[in-house]
Amino acid sequence: MFINRKLGELNLKVVYYGPALSGKTTNLEYIHDNIDPRLRTELVSLKTQEDRTLFFDFLQLELGQVKGLKPKFNLYTVPGQVIYAASRRLVLEGADGVVFVADSQADRLRDNIDLLGNLVIYLSKKGQALSDYPMVLQCNKQDLPNAMPPEELRNRLRQDSVPCLGSVATEGEGVFDTLKMIINLVVGQVR
Ligand SMILES: Nc1nc2c(ncn2[C@@H]2O[C@H](COP(=O)(O)OP(=O)(O)OP(=O)(O)O)[C@@H](O)[C@H]2O)c(=O)[nH]1
Ligand SMILES: [Mg+2]
Questions:
Q1: 34-45, pLDDT tens digit by residue?
Q2: DSSP 43
Q3: What does the pLDDT average to over 22-27?
Q4: Which residue's CA is the nearest one to ligand 1's atom 11?
């Protein structure tokens, strides 16, 4: 969180975290393409030639008012590929909330568990716990035949107290619901 009193701005950071190809970038692309352009910046994507996130994606939204301040929501994605661990750690710095974008396909369960474990380790190195952060679990790719139901996936990830929902990011299903959930949680912490 960063408050610029001169400009009356409240900057909040939300990080979309999760394993490779789970749909993190697709979430930001859908938000970018479907929100009033006056409320957002352009989407900045640092990606490989194969369209995989190399460092991060970034999109800023300016929505409503919180305690007389203009909140700016800075949305970032991390690269999910295992080799980009250092980038994930950097992007996570200063986060006010996390959207964990899981790939619901049964054969990706291990990757979801690994990336979540990663996240817990980074935070513990900073003396923090996952439970210190507002988090939403988005169970993406619910359109695929081998997708686990959201409740079951949450259970397998041992995140019983985290709000979760299913999504199909390519269709936009659940994308704005996820955004609203994390914004409410993050703003709730500011209050
Ligand atoms: N069937 C299906 N495909 C999806 C869904 N969401 C994303 N995809 C596809 O999955 C692929 C990866 O999506 P990305 O958004 O690039 O994934 P990512 O999590 O940003 O991947 P990294 O940047 O490598 O970490 C793309 O081909 C998307 O079109 C979904 O809900 N259903
Ligand atoms: Mg990506």
A1: 999 999 999 999
A2: P
A3: 98
A4: 21
Q: What crossing angle do the helices spanning 85-92 and 109-125 adopt, rounded to 10°?
A: 60
Instruction: Name the pTM for this structure.
Output: 0.96
Q: Which atom of ligand 1 is nearest to the CA of 101?
A: 19
The tokens for 18 are 């999760």
| Ligand 1 pocket, mutate which of 170, 171, 173 (most atoms under 8 A from CB) | 170
Would you place residue 87 in the very low, low, confident or very high pLDDT band (cuts 50, 70, 90)?
very high
The answer to whether the CB of 15 falls within 8 A of the CB of 95 is yes
Residue with tokens 């301040």: 69
Distance (Å) from CA 126 to ligand 1 centroid:
30
CATH no. for 2-190: 3.40.50.300
